[in-house]
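Page 47, continued from p. 46.
Same chain as before, 357 aa.
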Amino acid sequence: MSIILTLLIFTVIVVIHEAGHFFIAKKFGVLVEEFSVGMGPKLCGFKKGDTQYNIRILPLGGFCRMAEEVENRDDVISFNDTTPLQRILICAAGPIMNFVLAFIVLTAIALCSYMLTTDITAVNENSPAAEAGIQAGDIITAVDGHSVHSRNDFNFYTAQSNTERYVITVKRNGKKMNFAVTPRYDENEKRTLFGFSLDIKAPYFDVMDLDKSNMLEKDSIFQYISYGYFNMISIVKMTAYAFVELITSKIAITEMSGPIGITSAVGEVYNETVKVSGWAVLFSMLDLTALLSANLGVINLFPLPAIDGGRIVIAFIELITGKTVPKNIEGIIHFIGFALLMALGIYIAFNDVLKLI
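Result:
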């Protein structure tokens, strides 16, 4: 089951990614020769206009193949004939669609599950928060100068800091106030605590019957949409931060996971949630889809050869200088980048196997 679910998730996020390239390319009149769901031998398909639409036998993502050369036609152009700005938009459309998918999925999850806010509902007596001056009713807006829009942001910034004291910014009666708080280790909880409680909102659509006692309040539907958006932004920030840490050798490559490691993680999540309900399985898989989609979007925007970010950099150079980078030089750059990425993928797969042994 874990393999099937992983293939389904990867297919969805890759097809959505390629659809972004497809629609913007079509908008600029680029000849798209083929749009396929899946890889390998063709299972079925049809042709509409100049584009062949196929479903292929292996559910391993998909692809959008644009013509590199077009001769004797005035109604369409090749990808190479587009302007630098058009190429930037075509390449960026894939990652942007991944962010859109993550936003939609996370919003759907927010509407059907608890919404964890940064509104402080209670402050424990004699706690670090109380001693610092934080009060119930305050709304956390920043940690050490980093804006906080979601519980994920708060957890991320308090986990990443090397300091023992945090400057927490709150909004109180419309005014922003800063408080220096040093959390204390709690023996019962086995973790450091600030000493305050944050508000939880009831699901807007309680399909899983989470709020059986009806003790929690709902928020406006716009707050749930905002919550989904900021959760997506939080994932983007965390992914970018981790990728920079990887490049700067602050995180070991062995900490990365490829398809094998992700399949294992999907299996573990499935085995835990299937004991709860079908809804729990669905929303946990959707959560992983959003996470992986946002990750794919971020990674593809990094300025590395053979991926969208590398092509955007080259197009941006052409846009600024007004000179075209020779296609043979660009091809060599992308080929070397592709070879390195394949080598990295094999290395990561090897490490994933070792982790399972």
